[in-house]
Write a structure and sequence with these properties.
mainly alpha; 2 domains; 18 helices; transmembrane
Length: 505
């Protein structure tokens, strides 16, 4: 919750047809991210044939360390602005200048500290890479509150347009440079171009000019929310990136390049697909937090939607990892096959636990989230460090084991502090893991019985889908789950139906 503001408050108010608008927003947002994911994967495929693992390893070394700064740049203030019950014009102005100032400081600090980063990895080329990428902090700092404003007012189509344009323009620039013989510099230009285009789009579509900062505006509530969320994100970032840092320091740029391609091919698109669900869920749950029944039902259905889309897709990746890698990346990247399988398994459990992140933000319990994140981070760091004893594949295995151990703990902790239906979330997640895990196993086994990349791919996918069809016919609760997800999609497409978020049957 934020401090009350007397001047022209922008309040979260009930929206007529919230369920319909939410469903439409989800479809628009996920559709936009699907296009962005296609661009992401297309970029991985095209650039993997033009650049080397060493080039990607260099970029990954910088992004792993410099990425910490981007969390400070946001400072949790974008989410603070989105979830605030009221947000005055002057509060928003102050948030803009705070994010911009933090971005400018981080740009200067990274520029000056670039030699230290190069010394850490013993790679002199990292100096120039880090100094160029440091300017993304300033660009992203300027864009932060523009994007938060669009999200707060549920203008999902505009956000989707921005998020498609940035990566598309940046990929075109990177491919053009790579075709002309430019190496890792093409990847650096891609990162900088993305930030610049996202800023330009947010400013144009945001239609807002910030005023000068003011000291007499109540900011304590917003800053407290942001500080707690920042702590959570820092801990989460450290645990999420201990794998790349460990590989870069222990095994070098080529090994890190292989791991980075596996991560970029799978986990980055997955993150891009999951993140919009927060964009849709946060403003809705912020409006429903006074209604326990509808709040819990939204969370339950949200988990089902993630399970029957993203988790289902990850099971297909596990089944077809070998032919997918051979087709998309080529022979020099065969080392990523086992990495992709382990990362996909990790992604399944991360996705099922993701609804908890919505709830913590919507209810303002960032302190509670921070305490849980400390525990889950300790689990992940331990698993990754122990796994590194067996090389890069061991790191990926440790990364997969960690969310398997932390997932049930996350739901239990969530239920202690928020009004979520623990039993429904646990049983729903377990049955989807069982169903799609079995589909992955059947698809993988079927693919080993045939020859040829494309034949193996089609066999893996076909066998997985056929097996799920049998599960759907045999298990009534699976049919009910699928029907509920389909109803949400139909509501969004038709524009008819319930005027509010549905309650439990």
């Amino acid at each position: 919750m934020t401090d009350p503001a007397p001047e022209a408050p922008d309040a979260i108010a009930p929206i007529p047809g919230l369920g319909r608008r939410t469903a439409r927003g989800a479809v628009v947002t996920l559709g936009g991210q699907a296009v962005r994911m296609t661009i992401q994967i297309g970029g991985v495929v095209v650039l993997a044939h033009l650049l080397s693992p060493h080039d990607y390893g260099l970029l990954a070394m910088v992004l792993t360390v410099v990425g910490i700064g981007d969390l400070f740049r946001d400072f949790g203030l974008s989410s603070a602005a989105i979830q605030a019950t009221t947000l005055s014009r002057h509060q928003r102005d102050n948030l803009f200048w705070l994010n911009t100032a933090i971005g400018a400081v981080l740009t200067l600090a990274t520029f000056l500290a670039a030699p230290l980063l190069a010394d850490l990895y013993d790679e002199p080329d990292l100096v120039g890479i880090a100094r160029v990428l440091s300017f993304t902090f300033l660009l992203n700092g300027l864009a932060t509150q523009y994007r938060a404003g669009l999200t707060r007012h549920m203008q999902f189509a505009k956000l989707a347009a921005i998020d498609i344009a940035g990566p598309a323009v940046a990929l075109a620039a990177a491919v053009l440079l790579a075709l002309n013989g430019v190496g890792y510099e093409a990847l650096v230009v891609q990162q900088l171009t993305t930030a610049a285009v996202l800023l330009a789009g947010a400013v144009v579509l945001g239609r807002w000019l910030p005023g000068l900062p003011r000291r007499d505006v109540p900011m304590r509530g917003l800053l407290k929310f942001g500080w707690n969320l920042l702590g959570t994100q820092l801990v989460g970032y450290a645990s999420n990136n201990v794998d790349s840092l460990t590989i870069g320091v222990r095994f070098g740029s080529v090994s890190l390049g292989l791991y980075n391609r596996a991560f970029s091919l799978l986990m980055q698109p997955l993150t891009q697909l999951r993140a919009p669900s927060t964009t849709v869920a946060l403003p809705v749950l912020s409006r429903l937090r006074g209604d326990t029944v509808r709040f819990g039902e939204f969370v339950r259905r949200g988990q089902l939607a993630l399970a029957y889309t993203l988790v289902a897709g990850l099971s297909l990746v596990i089944a077809a990892a070998e032919p997918l890698t051979q087709i998309l990346l080529g022979p020099q990247w065969t080392g990523v096959i086992p990495l992709i399988r382990f990362l996909a398994a990790a992604g399944m459990f991360q996705t099922l636990a993701y609804v908890g992140y919505w709830v913590y933000l919507a209810t303002g319990l960032t302190g509670v989230l921070l305490r849980y994140t400390l525990v889950s981070a300790a689990i992940r760091i331990t698993c990754v460090v122990v796994g590194s004893t067996w090389g890069v594949v061991g790191v990926a295995a440790g990364y997969a084991v960690a969310p398997m151990l932390a997932w049930p703990l996350s739901l239990w902790w969530l239920s202690r502090h928020t009004p979520v239906p623990l039993g429904a979330l646990l049983t729903g997640a377990l049955r989807t893991i069982a169903a799609f895990g079995a589909c992955a196993g059947v698809g993988w086994y079927a693919s080993t019985l045939v020859d040829g990349r494309w034949t193996a791919l089609l066999t893996a996918v076909g066998a997985s889908l056929a097996f799920f069809g049998l599960v759907w016919l045999a298990v009534p609760v699976i049919r009910r789950d699928v029907r509920e997800v389909v109803e949400v999609v139909a509501l969004a497409r038709s524009g008819r139906g319930a005027k509010t978020v549905p309650t439990a049957a």
